[in-house]
Amino acid sequence: MKFGRLGPSGGVVLEERPPPVAGPGELTVELAACGVCGTDLEKLRGNYRTAGILGHEPVGRVASVGDGVAGLRAGQRVFVHHHVPCLACDVCRRGDTTFCPTYGRTNLDPGGFAETFRASAEHVRQGAVLALADPVDWGTGALLEPAACGLTALRKVGLPEGASVLVLGLGPVGLLYARLVRTLGASWVGGTELSERRRTAAERGGIDVTVDPRDGAALHEAVRAATGGQGVDLAVAASGHPSVVRAAVDEVRRGGTVNLFGLPEPGSRLDTELQQLYLRGVRLVPSYATTEREIRDVHALVVEGRLRVGDLVSHRVPLPEIAEAFRLAASPSEALKVVVTGPAFDR
To answer: Of the residues 5, 170, 270, 344, which has the maximum number of CB atoms within 10 A of its CB?
Structure first.
């Protein structure tokens, strides 16, 4: 079978290997679609210190089930989350499940960009395999995980009723975050983004105001006009670049929250005046990844018609052309969300 992986020199390469086999408690899934995530792109650039496995937003049809697997059957449409926590260690008991040592160790074999991939017994046992409801098409299913990352973040930072929210960086995950806070009751949602195409998509999806971040005066004016001069309740740094985090700090109100949501590059530093953070009471709260709970809750929001995400898929690229999928995903002027499709896509 074909699968895409991180190449030795940093690019994505397509290779052949035997398909995985489902052992006891495990299952294999035939790929329908898997989104190209910003963290996949960062792995190619060498900016993400984790295992080099690519693809963690996959949906497909169950190909085979191992002995002892209950409630799942061959042919069933599923989403499979790539990481699972142990739910038993001190980290998990504190509620910080995405920082569990087991969470980072577990993964799909050989990754989400594979014609067939294997979910371990841990994945099956911990509920990482989610049966997709009929209204959820393959493209929408591939967006459940990145949307759930936003829900995990919101549960960590809190979303006050009628909050004003600024999302800085309207890439695919920023667009999903912005739509999610609108769904959950934010009174005003603004955003910043270099790409005109992505700003247009944000406004089409119900975001009140978008601004080119290079125009700092326009951003400041829009935020002050929307909040009576106070600043937003929640500023989301959907890009980890220090300049984006600084802008988030500048535009949040006294006592407000900055969510460090986007992945910072290794070695990057935040140069800001600590006394001002202290005197203004600004909370800086990082959030990382998501869990099965939030994925299931986002799935429910989609099925109920409260959250629309599938229209953000701008390109569907067959697995043999995965290099082109990554090229498109790295080009904000050309693409919104890019998904790689597999053999189960047309079934």
So the answer is: 170
CA distances from 233 to 122, 188, 227 (A): 39, 10, 9
Does residue 247 surpass a pLDDT of 90?
A: yes
Report residue 43: phi and psi, to 5°. -65, -40
Q: Which domains does the chain have, with CATH numbers?
A: 2-143+309-341 (3.90.180.10), 158-286 (3.40.50.720)
Calpha distance 116→342 (Å, rounded): 9
Query: Cβ atoms within 10 A of the Cβ of 93, count?
Result: 11
pTM: 0.96
Closest CA to 300 of 186, 144, 163, 160: 144
Check if the beta carbon of residue 59 is closer than 8 Å to that of residue 84. Answer: no
- Widest distance between CA atoms in the chain: 62
**Displacement of CA 156 from its chain's centroid (Å):** 15
Residue 62's DSSP bridge partners are: 29
**pLDDT tens digits along 61-72:** 999 999 999 999
R_g (Cα) of the chain, nearest Å: 20
